[in-house]
Amino acid sequence: MTGVVRTSAWDLAVESVEEALADGVVPSLEHLGRLGQLGTLPSFVAALDGDEDPGELADDHARERESLGLAPAEVASELLVLGRVLDRHGETEARRALDRCVAAYVERVTGELAERARRDPLTGILNHRAFHARVLAESARARRYKSRIALLLFDRFKETNDREGHQEGDRLLRAFAAALTGTARETDAVGRLGGDEFGALLLEAGTETAGSFLSRLRERLSDGISASAGAAFLPADASEPQGLLEVADRRLYDDKRARAA
User: Which one of 7, 31, 44, 203 has the largest count of C-beta atoms within 10 Å of its C-beta?
Assistant: First the structure.
């Protein structure tokens, strides 16, 4: 792709910025000077003339724009304005390259949004819905292939919130989530199920694996952090996800009651 962009990349970038400002579709640009408004846009336009991977090209440009304070919607709007500018100047090949970049950027942003929707905002681990979806999927897989899984539930952080305040409680929740993540294998899953309750799903695991997990978890926990735990096993304790959760929850309650005695 040699000589694709016939018009000056700088002029195309300037025209695109001015049109975006006039249309009001990228309000964050209004707070920047002209050089800040242009940023890497001229280089991005010039790169449409080459053979760079559209995904990498779009990602590098978008991250630079986002670092200037542009929201993803503003980055997308700016790229659409640039497309109109390229069309006006008859830059057909460059426009095709831009379209591939836009598609790559949208794929990246939607992927990040989908992943963010699966994560607990405080701890970064799986949220309630995503964790339970994983339990359902792995339970079905375990029944199909006659394998084993272990479900562990943890809680009892509420007392810290009540006694020392939410800020300290949040710190402990993040620390416990980090310890869970560090203890789990790549094939396992950990999640925050709501409030002060956490879960760990261990694949190809029985009582010995679960016991080893709990021992390693305790070693990772700093002083002052402890939690009640309850474990259940498929197929030993239940054959369905709901039964697995009920058994683990009942054993969690028994452990809490024993600790309180």
Answer: 44
What digits encode the pLDDT tens for the residues 41-89?
A: 999 999 987 777 888 888 899 999 989 889 999 999 999 999 999 999 9
CA gap 27, 70 in Å, rounded: 8
Backbone angles phi, psi at 69, to 5 degrees: 105, 5
Interval 165-216: pLDDT, tens: 677 788 888 999 999 999 999 999 999 998 889 999 999 999 999 999 999 9
Cα 71 to Cα 16, 29, 104, distances in angstroms: 17, 11, 17
Question: What CA–CA distance (Å, rounded) separates 200 from 154?
Answer: 8
Residues present in the chain in total: 261
First to last CA, the chain: 76
The CATH number of 128-260 is which of 3.40.50.1700, 3.60.150.10, 3.30.70.270, 3.40.640.10?
A: 3.30.70.270
List the one residue out of 90, 77, 13 whose CA is nearest residue 44.
Answer: 13
Confidence class for position 130, pLDDT limits 50, 70, 90? very high
Asked if 123 and 173 touch (Cβ cutoff 8 Å), the reply is yes
User: Hey, where are the domains in the chain?
Assistant: 9-117, 128-260
pLDDT at 77: 94
Strand duo 149-155 + 228-234: pairing: antiparallel
Distance CA 155, CA 195 (A): 9
